[in-house]
Amino acid sequence: MKTARFGWLTAALVAAGALCVVFPLFWMAVTSLKTVPEIQRLPLQVFPDRWSNLDNYREVFQRQPFGRFLLNSALVASVAALSSAVVSSLAGYGFAKFRFPGHAVFFFGIVGILMVPFQSVVVPLYLWINRLGLLDTYPGILAPDLVSVFGVFLMRQAIEVVPSDYVDAARIDGASEFGIFWRVILPAVKPAIATLVIVKFMWTWNELFWPLVVVNSPTMKVVTLGLVSFTNMYFIEYNLVTAAAVVSVLPILAVFLACQKWIVRGVVMSGLKG
Amino acid sequence: MDRQRRAGLLFVLPAVVYFGGVFLVPLVESVIGSFYRTVPGGLSQFVGTRLYVKVLTDPTFWQAVGNTLSLLVMSVPVTVVVALAVALGLHRLRSLEARSAWAAMYFLPFSVSLVAAALVWQWIYDPVYGVLNHALAGLGVPPLKWLQSLDLVRPSLAAVNVWARLGFDTMIFLAALQAIPAEYYEAAAIDGASAWQALRRITLPLLNPQIVMVAILELIFNFKIFDTVYATTQGGPAGASQTVIMLLYDTAFKYFRLGDASVMAVFVFVSLLLVTLLQWRLFRRQVEY
Fold first, then answer.
1. Which residues contact B254 (CB under 8 A, 6 or more apart)?
2. Whole-number Å distance between alpha carbons of B155 and A98
3. Which chain B residues touch A102 with a CB distance below 8 Å?
4. Nearest to A21 by CA among B32, B170, B142
5. d(CA A63, nearest CA chain B) in Å
6. CATH class assigned to A54-269
7. Distances (CA, A) of A14 to A10, A263, B148, B203, B274
8. Each residue's pLDDT tens digit, B238-281
């Protein structure tokens, strides 16, 4: 068969492509371990002289409160992930298992928001946050990230396939509506919740646009803002920029590698959110 | 029964209120705001469609639209085609372990923020010390100013977008490929179909919904491109990489011309709405297969 004959060629091409894709990340990592003379040396040198050279990392944390940035990002992303898990699973249950006036209007209204680019609402949102005195605060940074349409959609899909018999049986046993949600529905959709929490955490961590709009003071910056601030100079010190980039990427990469299965599920279940 | 209706409504209420407050109300305000000019002192003055005329006749705005479209044309087809090729390649690997290991490598950039991605690429593109020019020097190519020249800045940024998005699209295609029943290919093989024929007659038609979906998602993503540009060129050189969203951001938050920015916001919304409607049409045609 033809497939067998070209099997090695396919494998070689796939491998070569994968190495090209990973190369920028590799280059980021090795650059972050080099000194300035090393990154400017000719001919080009791939590996750092000393693998244990962490001076760039030290410098990054000295020049900017990068620890604080990490903390801010972790806090914002955690709250966003949790609140979106709570609100989305409640709404997902309501949309999947109940019929009530306005059901279709609300559901398609929410899904319709996918068509609204965030940038189209950012000016009024900024004015609201300003009026409420929430500029430069955690609630201000979090405001548009507390729930995502993706989450509601994902949870509705997941809860829809939980057999309605379970719900009915619990109801006959006299369980309250919230009790059914808590004890019957939630345990059945744990994988979907895990997917949502991980994906939402990642998105919020990587976000730039909104934090750029609401954050002014250095102590409220999130890591993406911290990263950008390393480049607002005439001369870019790439050994520092790459070290900062590694610091910003590493936590998310760890989560990513540990939970890749869930993330792929999330991506596949709905290729939502551009 | 009544209890259940009320319960259902209560379950969806937090989400409905949230999305109404954070998206619907501001969207309406954006539309209203596009008819008002903010005068010094913070007061708003109704100016009718004057801001629309102003923005839509401004060459800077159309240059940004043109730049955005040119970035889009350079990155969307490449991303979709390469992702499809990668997914097909991964799918042909026999060993499942090998398949998921290589797939993980393609998927890796998905977890990296666009800011970090852009900065790393800026370093790779560096005209003097960048690894790309070093590698090309080995082939006898003179050093190029990837992000600093009017001609190269958009293709260079488009390449960053392709790199950042490739894994996401590949995963969607790969999942769809794995869902195609093996019997289809066995039947085709019995009928004497070549691998090329199987690809054209079975795989691609069955993948059509995913191809359309991914193309639309990429279109939307690239239309809204901001992070990579902001972190690297800030729209330069000489506005050659100024995108619509970059211009919107500068107009609103650098020059505080909120009315002008609202006109751009409405423009972006309407453009993407048209893209989505187009998507529905394409999907509907697909159903007839």
1. none
2. 50
3. 9
4. B170
5. 18
6. mainly alpha
7. 6, 22, 32, 19, 36
8. 899 999 999 999 999 999 889 999 999 999 999 988 887 877 77
Cis amide prior to B237 (ω within 30 degrees): yes
pLDDT digits (tens, 9 = 90+) for B160-199: 999 999 999 999 999 889 888 888 888 888 888 888 888 8
For residues B186 and B202, what is the distance between their CA atoms, to the nearest angstrom?
A: 11
Nearest to A87 among B18, B230, B272 (CB): B18
Q: Which residue has the tokens 């619907």?
A: B24
Contact call for B121 and A24, based on CB within 8 A: yes
What does the pLDDT look like over A190-210, one tens digit per residue?
888 988 999 899 999 999 999
DSSP for residue A26: H
Stated as kind and residue range, the H or E segment containing A85 is helix A66-97
User: Residue A86's closest CA among A164, A3, A178?
Assistant: A178
Distances (CA, A) of B74 to A243, B70, B150, B219: 31, 6, 15, 11
> Angle formed by the axes of helices B153-178 and B114-125, to 10°?
130
Model ipTM value: 0.90
d(CA A13, CA A10): 5
Q: The dihedral of CA B150, B154, B160, B162: what is its sign? A: negative
Top-tier CATH class for B51-287: mainly alpha
Per-residue tokens: B205: 């038609």
Q: Are B264 and B247 in contact (CB under 8 A)?
A: yes
Whole-prediction pTM: 0.90
Q: Using an 8 Å CB-CB cutoff, list chain A residues near B283.
A: none
Helix ranges (DSSP H) in B149-203: 153-178, 182-190, 195-198
Spatial distance between the Cα atoms of B217 and B269, rounded to a whole number of angstroms: 15
Q: Is the pLDDT of residue A27 over 50?
A: yes
